[in-house]
Amino acid sequence: MSGPTKIDFRHRRVREIEDITDVVAMIFPGNTNQQHAAARILLTLKAVAETVASLRVLEEQHGISRRTLERTRAKLARVGLIECVSPLSKRANGRPGWRLSGRMSAALRVLADKIEAWRDDKRRERAEKDERLVGMLG
User: Fold this and answer.
1) Orientation angle between helical segments 20-27 and 32-47, nearest 10 degrees
2) Predicted confidence (pLDDT) per residue in 25-75, tens digit
3) What is the pTM (predicted TM-score) of this model?
4) Cα separation of 83 and 28, whole Å?
5) How many C-beta neighbours within 10 Å does residue 103 have?
C-alpha cells in the first residue's frame, strides 16, 4: 500500500483555479515534470470518447520519461481523476484502458456534505463523542 498523497489543497487556491494547469499544480506541487505529464494525460483522455489503451504514446510524442509517466498516472488514479478500465467491464464494451473518472469530484462532494453535517450537529451526544475521540488523539 502506498503512503499519503500530497496535494496543495488550500481553500483560497481552490477558488482561484481557472484551467488544467492550476489543477495539476495543486495535485503535483513543486514538480513541473509531473505537472506536464498530468496535463498531457488529462488532455489526452478528455479528447477521446473511448478508453485509451496505453498512455505510452505520450512518452514519444511529448518526451515524457516512462518513470514520470507511470508515477503521474498512479497518482492521478489514486486521487480518482482517472481510472483503469478492465476488459471485463460492461461499461467499456470490452475495451480495456484508461479514462477520466468522476471519483474525485464525487468524493469531494461527499466530504463537503459530511463537514457541513458535522458542523450543523449541535447534539450533546455528538459533542461528547467528539471530545472522547480528541482525547484519544493526545
Assistant:
1) 130
2) 999 999 999 999 999 999 999 999 888 999 999 999 999 999 999 999 999
3) 0.83
4) 18
5) 14
Grid look-up 464494451 returns: 93
Alpha-carbon gap, residue 97 to 87, rounded angstroms: 8
Residue with cell 515534470: 33
110 in the same domain as 89: no
In the chain, the amino acid numbered 104 is M
pLDDT tens for each residue of 74-90: 999 999 999 998 887 76
The CATH number of the domain where 30 resides is what?
1.10.10
Please report which residue ranges of the chain form alpha helices under DSSP H.
11-15, 20-27, 32-47, 57-62, 66-79, 103-120, 124-137
Note whether 75 and 107 are same-domain residues.
Answer: no
Domain around 47:
1-101
